[in-house]
Amino acid sequence: MTSIGILGAGRVGTHLAGKLAAAGHHVVLGRRGPTDETTAVTEGADPRISFADQRLAARTADIVINATPGDSSLDRLAGLRTELAGKILIDVSNATRDSADGLPGDLCHPDSSLAEHLQAALPDTHVVKTLNTMLFMVMTAPETLATPPTVYVSGNDESAKKTVTGLLGDLGWRPEWIEDLGDVTTARATEAMILVVPHVLRRHGFKPFAVSLAR
Fold first, then answer.
1. What are the residues whose beta carbons fall under 8 Å from the beta carbon of 116, sequence distance 6 or more?
2. pLDDT tens per residue across span 131-181
3. What CATH number is associated with residue 62?
4. Which of 4, 18, 80, 85 is most open to solvent, judged by the fewest CB atoms within 10 Å of its CB?
5. Whole-angstrom Cα distance, residue 195 to residue 89?
6. 105 in a domain, yes or no?
7. How many domains does the chain have?
8. For 97, which DSSP code?
9. Do the domain assignments include residue 59?
10. Distance (Å, rounded) from C-alpha 66 to C-alpha 181?
């Protein structure tokens, strides 16, 4: 059993918490403050899920998942450098500025990526980018899509990526659906994929999909 800290207790964080807890992991949901909403799990729903502030969640976990809003992730996590030292940080966020309708618009880091900035700010942490090219419900139920989906993985440390691949399996991702793109600089490609998402949502509504490879 692995101790996993999830920073962010919104839809993404709580969906991941529920599935990872069901797979046997102990999960700490890190909330920024008492006003954070938990939409997919509630306190007491699973004994393997507990709640704490984000600093404590990062300090006590073996592996940490960044599910905070991407436009503020860098500022939030840079302040947790000590707590995240020596750990794997799984970054599932996309750093965008919203359009007028509230959907993702421009990238905050058009010539780089959030993952690269996190790695630079946290040099003692192994940052792995993944799960950021789909709607949140697909992260924990990829088998529900009619077409086999793809989840991309980017990171500098091969051992960290291997560990993350194992967790993806716990979330329901088959090995043939996992595409290792290479080092953390490849995250700028997958983060740019978010730009297609608002156009799909405006045309088809909030229906599950992933940006995947077809072979």
1. 109, 184, 185, 187, 188
2. 999 999 999 999 999 999 999 999 999 999 999 999 999 999 999 999 999
3. 3.40.50.720
4. 85
5. 24
6. yes
7. 1
8. E
9. yes
10. 20
